[in-house]
Specification:
The complex is a heterodimer of chains A (about 375) and B (about 210). Chain A is an alpha/beta fold and about 375 residues long. Helices cover about 35% and strands about 15% of the residues of chain A. The chains are: A alpha/beta (about 375), B alpha/beta (about 210).
């Protein structure tokens, strides 16, 4: 009901576009040294690019997201994944800014990934798809930004894996980024984060249908992927938000068999898992979680060197109840900023939603982002 | 930042703005909503940033276009290198931190100068309330009851001067305020609050 009302009031119909580049022999050289091409990126844009091309904002999605960040597509009954933040009058105000979001390489939402066709074989890549990193994702996006005729971005922003891309942009392309908003993220994956991802990967690979990644002509490893997603969802919530949402309540109806899910929380996780397999490719899950685990801006350097040479102003946001990307990791980003003389604002929001808060707590984020962006645009405060 | 004084009339802001040099880099610990930082940015073209623990104040600072970090100054300033700022300001919150000595040491490490403003516990009205009425003082500069005060430490102007002498801290400037007025004599009795500009004595290089 809420959605319908919103849709009537603020109807923004968007369509996903595609950009293909890195045609052989000019493939994209990946961080691993391997080459990938041609590469297609699915992307969406909202709002209009101004005359001097100075109002572009690049948004990054998290692990399971896609290019559809805002508005509605024709057949949608639900808006894009960050519609609360992007649109007319919202944090990323599409009356003022030209907002871009693309699906990452390695993904399965229209961009080139392991489910795509390997030009060498005419078959899906499967595990022939090269290992990709956050840096590779960002390098591919840079080609899209070139294609759109934009030299310098007003802002790069995203939560979780999206925040890593924002950090990587600020580091890889310092002269092209005026501001960065990394939310609920880290400069490097911790052992605990790697461990949770590994459970997800092992679950997929333990599914006999996974078949060494070669399942595109048969049955996909839905059980494995579903369990991986269930583990993920546990880490996205908090003890408090789970207690609020489910308590110890039982589901309605009688159990037909032993160990069928009878608690509400079990039913919820199964529902989430089962839905996920309809829209996500298991191999993409393996590749993208691995890219997250490899992410390490330190790269053997000291904290004081992490953001050296970065020109962007930073707004760093964390959530108190986020135990997957705990606030200490965001404070580390802020510390790296301060040590490198990078202008940074940090806010630790009081939310009980856990890691999911970056998608759900839009009111406070909207206030912060709106004013921060206005400051960047007008050169308020210390200017830049 | 707990003072009952209306912003526009805040003599302490005027004094501090007068002391900060043109174009200086400034860090304020416990910057509240950032009024002082904004004044310094506008009037002295200072490069400013703040640290604040209260989430609501962070929102206010961001709406002013200021850079502010949401953190507890009692946790130290390890993200800042030595002498990273021309000035570090601690105005009206030194009495609220758990470890004033650590906070002051850190302020003097990361700042060339530190500007410290605090309420004077030895003000005559506080003395009278304690001595005559036998009650914990509530004054204009110390407007709280014992059970709801954010103040953890009570110091007088003389206490602060002795602290500086003992810790080899140089007092470069001082101002004593009573409401809108500057107090010229007998400050430890007549001034409701004090502002000091201090620095760490450093060995002079042999020429």
């Amino acid at each position: 009901m809420d959605t319908v009302l919103k849709k009537d009031k603020n109807i923004v119909i968007v369509e996903t576009k595609y950009f293909t580049f890195a045609w052989p022999p000019d493939e994209l050289v990946l961080e691993s040294g391997e080459k990938l091409g041609p590469i297609t990126l699915a992307y969406e844009t909202y709002g209009n690019l101004n005359a001097d091309r100075s109002n572009a904002v690049l948004i990054f999605h998290a692990l399971s997201g896609d290019a559809h960040a805002a508005g509605y597509q024709d057949a949608d009954d639900r808006p894009g994944w960050w519609d609360g933040m992007i649109g007319p009058g919202k944090a990323f105000d599409t009356d003022k800014y030209f907002v871009i979001c693309s699906n990452v390489i390695g993904g399965c939402k229209g961009s080139t990934g392991p489910a795509g066709e390997n030009p060498k074989t005419g078959q899906p890549y499967g595990l022939d798809f090269p290992v990709i990193t956050v840096k590779d994702m960002v390098n591919a996006q840079a080609r899209l930004v070139d294609h759109l005729g934009i030299d310098r971005l007003l802002c790069v922003a995203g939560g979780s894996m999206g925040g890593m891309q924002a950090l990587q942009w600020a580091v890889s392309y310092p002269s092209r980024v005026r501001s960065a908003i990394p939310i609920a993220t880290t400069v490097r994956h911790s052992p605990q984060q790697i461990a949770f991802n590994e459970v997800g990967r092992q679950s997929i690979m333990a599914d006999p249908n996974w078949n060494g990644g070669d399942y595109y002509s048969g049955t996909p490893p839905t059980r494995g992927l579903s369990v991986a997603r269930m583990v993920g969802h546990i880490t996205y919530m908090s003890d408090e938000s789970m207690a609020d949402k489910f308590g110890r309540r039982f589901r309605e109806g009688k159990l037909k068999e032993k160990f069928e899910p009878d608690f509400e929380v079990e039913g919820y996780l199964q529902y989430r898992g089962d839905n996920f397999v309809k829209r996500f490719d298991a191999n993409s899950y393996l590749y993208i979680t691995k890219a997250l685990d490899y992410f390490d801006l330190y790269n053997g350097k000291g904290l004081e060197h992490l953001l050296r040479g970065v020109q962007a102003r930073f707004l760093v946001v964390a959530f108190k109840s986020d135990w997957l990307y705990p606030p200490y990791q965001s404070r580390e980003i802020v510390k790296a900023c301060k040590l490198s003389g990078v202008d940074a604002t940090y806010c630790e929001l009081n939310s009980s939603y856990g890691h999911d808060a970056f998608l759900l707590e839009t009111e406070e984020q909207e206030y912060l982002v709106k004013h921060f962006l206005a400051g960047v645009r007008e050169g308020n405060g210390n200017g830049n | 930042m707990n003072t009952g004084i209306v912003e526009a009339e805040r003599q302490d802001y005027r004094v501090i703005t007068g002391w900060v040099t043109e174009g200086a880099s400034v860090l304020e610990l416990g910057c509240g909503g950032g009024e002082l930082l904004q004044m310094l940015n506008r009037q002295k073209r200072a490069t400013v940033s703040g640290i604040e623990i209260d989430e609501n104040y962070i929102f206010t600072c961001v709406s002013r276009g200021l850079s502010v970090a949401h953190q507890d100054i009692d946790d130290g300033l390890s993200e800042y290198s030595d002498q990273a700022f021309d000035f570090v300001i601690i105005n009206q919150c030194l009495q609220e931190v758990r470890k004033p000595h650590t906070v002051l040491s850190e302020a003097l490490r990361v700042g060339g100068h530190a500007i410290i403003g605090f309420p004077n516990f030895a003000h005559y009205s506080a003395r009278l309330q304690l001595a005559v009425r036998g009650r914990a003082p509530v004054t204009a500069a110390l407007p709280f009851q014992w059970y709801d005060t954010p103040n953890l430490h009570f110091l007088s102007i003389r206490d602060f001067c002795e602290y500086c002498a003992k810790n080899r801290i140089i007092i470069e400037r001082q101002a004593f305020l009573e409401g809108k007025w500057e107090v010229r004599f007998w400050p430890n009795v007549l001034a409701g609050s004090a502002i000091f500009q201090i620095s760490r004595s450093r060995p002079t290089l042999l020429q």
